[in-house]
Amino acid sequence: MVAIKRVFKLSLSGAAMGAALVSAPAMAQADGDAAQVDPAGLGVIVVTAQRREENVQDIPIAISSFSPDELQSRGIGNTLELGEFIPNLIAQNNTGLGASNAYFLRGIGNTESIATFDPPIGTYVDQVYLARQNGNNLSLFDVERVEVLRGPQGTLFGRNTTGGAISIVLREPGDEFGGFTEIGYGRFDRILVRGSMDIPVGDNVAFKVSGYYQNDDGYVENITTGDTLNDNDGFGARIAMRLSTDIAEWNIAYARITNDGENILNFPCRAIDPATPTDCDTRFATTGSTEASAGPVPGISGRKANYGLGSQSDMDLITSNLELELGDDISVAFITGYTNLVQQFNLDFFDGRFGPSPANPFPAVIGSPFGGFNIFNDQENTQITQEVRFNGSLADGLIDFVAGGYYFYEDTSTDFADLFGAVGFPFLLADRVIDNDAEAFALYGQADVHVTDQITLTAGLRWTDEEKNFQIRDNRPICNGDQSAPGCLSNFNLVATNGTPIPDSQSVSIFTPRFAVTYEPNDDLLFFVSATRGFKSGGWNARGTAGSELLPFGPETTWSYEAGFRSEFWDNRARLNVTAYYADTTGLQTPSAFVRGNGTIAFITRNFADYENYGIEAELTLAPADGLNIFASLGWQDDQYNIDRNADPVDEFGVTSVAAQQAQCQAALAANMASAACGAGIVTLDGRIAEPVRTPDWSIAGGVSYEVPIGDNWTITPAVNAAYRSSFETGTSNVTVYQSAPGTFNTTGNGDFVIGSFNDGYFVVNAGITLAEVDDGLQLSVTCTNCFSEDYNSSTLANTTYYNAPGTWLVSARYDF
User: Fold this and answer.
1) CB–CB of 608/657 below 8 Å?
2) What's the pTM value of the predicted model, to 2 decimals?
């Protein structure tokens, strides 16, 4: 209750704070339906956060929305880059994978990409849910708008949205022939080509064809092999069709998206080479793995044994939305989705560059052709979704409602092997195939009762019934004849260390309600309070390399309480939105990786603790003069793990509780002894409960663009924006290593940062300038992203540090026809 009162106090003080520095959902745009422009000021931003089209200022949800022009002015080219502009959101490439984004929103997130883990930030394309994190770094090149919903969305969006949702709405085929073409060239020899064309056929049929191609050389020099790594190659193509009559509209689209890019471990300076210790012109890597396949890797089975260093994902996506008018006040939509995602990679996660230290007791081994710790992966995921949704009004507009049913099914096969080579020779830790599937049914409904012209009561409820199944078989020759043989990774050997059988199926039936009250004293001001529950599915610790490590973890549930206001003022030239929240999460799913005593990497995900997060988010947009647009953003949060609710020293599988683990660590430290209980899970090396990861206290962004007429037919628009994140941790157990002298390492902060999880904050600037014809549609642009090449720790794996991408620039020409 104290925390809830604190949130409401924050909400009341938000107006004064927001007037100084707050955030922008989207500026007025004349392009598409996302913003209906009022020449006297800001546009009306239409969103579908409540599964129907509404003015963003009329809904009691924390949401940021971006139109195409807004994405361009902020330098946002893909979903990863959204993270700089959303309060209390951190978005980073997952370790190793260029196509996979790890989102942390209000402290809720997940860095695992294997299919037995679900991301808590749902990604939607044209209202179709994409279950896998593996391909969620989507290029934003022909979109109508992007909506980012903060906080659990379990009532209307369903499972796996405990942190929020990112909804991408693509452009529908237009009524008139037209489109655009664009070509660009940038740093690291980047080539970008994209375009779109609307092709109407008669009065009721229209098509859209769109696509993009991108290629670059990569920004990492591998000084061991000579390869250039971390390129971002790929292409996408989409064909869409719209059929319309007086009572029906059907939009159907097929997209093919290929991403050939990786996020290989690299460092900003070439200090590993004694001859060039201060060379920091680009990024450097030292893995001995090569992009060219060296033939089958000894001991590894299947086609993955021939993969060279790198990662590629291929996704086929079909979306269909058939909407029928059943009367003046009710409609029904049939929303169908099909996804097939294939991801193949060979990635080195631990190249052995650092010698003996508190984080790595083994000598540095550089240049092993087998890498340090490589994962070879061959995965295919197929997903089918079907939703039937009703929208309408009752009793002459007294009640607005949305209700429906939802079906979800996915099947995944993952053939992957772990190879440990940092000791100078290959050691196969595991080679196995995991087949897992999930099936879920849901019924949901939400009603808005307009008690008076100013007061609306909202109540919603979703029921979800879900079942998951897990099968594993060992690929090694010693297990081919008998999967039940001791040591084989198979369902026969799913037994915890205490002898308890590990289940190969999980099921859950759960209700996720939502309640809200809104008060709208006039057309320009709305106050609200709300309470919402969301849940994320459980799963299995599939990264384990022994049957006893393949432990299940349970669902993650969150209650979020919000209070805030939406406002417009200054003759519709200013928009200020403020939300304060308190979120209470039970069974937070937390992935952890650490180095075992034998030097191998151990992965474990458990419901380590409960979690509390409270904060405030504010968003401001200004249009003080024609052509001048200003935005600013502010997010503040405070959070902590809660380990007091689980008093049992061990769980049913014999796993030590966090409280008991902490006690073991502290006892070992008091006796001046080493202990595996320290620096693992959410217990630090010095026996504290770790700080939660990717939750900076402050997330601030701001920017300005100004369209200046040149003569009668040209405009020039400079734009600049900046984003700041204060310090935060990226490693679950907060392990950071410093070098106080050559060969001397410590974890106390004495000396230069070497590897680890601490990020001391960063400030990133994007800028651009566009010269455009008013009538003829030609645009010439020069843009830079991370213009000053700010380097910062973006992720941590087993005490290795992954850095963000360096600065880039792009010169492009676009023609609208």
Assistant:
1) no
2) 0.90
Above 70 in pLDDT, residue 1?
Answer: no
461 and 495 inside one domain: yes
DSSP 486: T
Rounded mean pLDDT, 155-162: 93
Please give the C-alpha separations between residue 66 and each of 17, 617, 706, 777, in angstroms, as whole numbers.
23, 17, 18, 22
- Maximum distance among all alpha carbons in the chain? 83
| Residue range 556-577: mean pLDDT, rounded | 96
Sorted by sequence, the CB contacts under 8 Å of residue 331 that are 6+ apart come out as: 323, 324, 325, 390, 391, 392
Mean pLDDT of 19-29: 32
Q: What is the pLDDT of residues 169-212, one digit of tens each?
A: 999 999 999 999 999 999 999 999 999 999 999 899 999 999 99
Evaluate if residue 28 carries a pLDDT over 70: no
Ranking 62-71, 387-396, 807-816 by mean pLDDT, the lowest is 62-71
Are the C-beta atoms of 107 and 116 separated by less than 8 Å? no
Which helix (H) or strand (E) segment holds residue 628: the answer is: strand 628-642
**Interatomic CA distance for residues 714 and 779, integer angstroms:** 10
- Read off the amino acid at residue 571: D
Q: What is the DSSP string of 69-101?
A: HHHHHTT--BGGGGGGSSTTEEEEEPSEETT-E
Mean pLDDT rounded to a whole number for the chain? 88
* Coil, helix or strand at residue 11: helix
On whether both 636 and 758 belong to a single domain, the answer is yes
> For residue 332, which amino acid is it?
V
Are 111 and 167 part of one and the same domain? yes
Mean pLDDT for 521-544 is: 95
Q: Where does residue 349 fall: left (phi above 0), alpha (psi -120 to 50 degrees), or beta otherwise?
A: alpha
Please give the DSSP secondary-structure letter assigned to residue 56.
G
Whether residues 611 and 669 fall in one domain = no
User: How much of the chain exceeds pLDDT 90, in percent?
Assistant: 66
DSSP string, 664-730: HHHHHHHTT---TTTTBTTB-TTSPBPPPBS--SEEEEEEEEE-EEETTTEEEEEEEEEEEE--EE-
Quote the tokens at residue 585. 């999460």
Q: What is the DSSP letter of 549?
A: G
Residues 6 or more apart from 157 whose CB is under 8 A from it? 122, 124, 129, 149, 165
State how far the Cα of 66 lies from the Cα of 146, in Å rounded to an integer: 5
Indicate if the pLDDT at residue 449 is higher than 70.
Answer: yes
> Would you say 673 and 688 are in contact if contact means Cβ atoms under 8 Å apart?
no
Shared-domain flag, residues 608 and 679: no
Q: Is the same domain home to 670 and 718?
A: no
What's the mean pLDDT in 559-585?
96
Q: 654, 684, 714 — which closes off a domain? A: 684
Report the pLDDT averaged over residues 472-479.
95
Q: Is the dihedral of CA 162, 116, 594, 682 positive or negative?
A: positive
The amino acid present at 138, given as its one-letter code, is L
Q: pLDDT (tens digit, 9 = 90+) per residue, 420-443?
A: 876 667 889 999 999 999 999 999
Residues 671 and 753 reside in one and the same domain: no
Question: Residue-wise over 50-60: b if at least 16 C-beta within 10 A, else e?
Answer: bbbebebbebb
The structural domain count of the chain equals 2
Read off the tokens for 553.
């973890």
Q: Which of 684, 699, 716 is the endpoint of a domain?
A: 684
pLDDT of residue 268: 83
- Residue 632 burial (10 A CB sphere; 0-12, 13-18, 19+): buried
For residue 557, the SS3 value is strand
Q: Is the domain of 245 the same as that of 308?
A: yes
Residue 185 — φ and ψ, nearest 5°? -135, 140
Looking at the DSSP assignment, which residues form a beta bridge with residue 227?
none
Structural domain of 674:
644-684
Paired sense of beta strands 399-420 and 427-450, if any: antiparallel
User: Can you give the CATH number for the domain in which 120 is found?
Assistant: 2.40.170.20
Q: Is 477 helix (H, G, I), strand (E, B) or coil?
A: helix
